[in-house]
Model the fold of this input.
Amino acid sequence: MVRLSTLEGQPDIAKFPGGQNAPADAGLDASADIIVPAPEGSSVLVANPADRVIYYYSEGMAAPMGSFQNYRRKPRGLMVVDRSLREITSGVYATTTKLPKSGIYDVAFLLDSPRITHCFQAEAKPNPDVRRDKEVAIRIEYLNKDKQLRIGENYKVRFKLFDTATAKAKSDLKDVRVLTFLASGTWQKRDFARPVGDGVYELDIKVPQSGLYYVFVESRSQGVSFRQLPYLTLQTAAATATNIN
Done:
């Protein structure tokens, strides 16, 4: 590092360690910049292919403040995508992002200092300049109002299916399968929902541990896979206490 104020005279040069091994020991040529500025300024990210690690260094420190694992791969370059909010006018902050498809999105906002968390919905409308995928044959509407599960207790998932072309209820499908899985990916279960009339389907699920769960629905006879329909998010709550006399 070079102190900029000393460039006109004798440069003031300082060094900091960027890993345990020299990057050249990896035997790879860099395919992009291996030191890039971090979004917050006064800090950089350093890729060290010999260590298989990306280091985070902040100005004024004698060593990196932390590191990022690279899934045991050798990083050959870095690129930082900065989507942080910036103040554009007094009290107004904005950022730009790119959404994969149209629909209703849940947006979670977190401010570290002062500590503020806030969630809201945002709608992305179809882009007329982008070719749309083939329309999904059925549409789903979840009927659950209470979205809290209790560990070890049955929870009834209820939803209604509609024919996309006619907007009429889609009843008596025999292959409506439901995938329920824990957000961490350590537990999942697949079961078939039972039709109860007027396009409504039900399924009892029982989860083994606390956490956030996602519920997906598919029907192969309708050509609809899990990823094509909106999913339901459920959160565990404390188990109901049982009184013993």
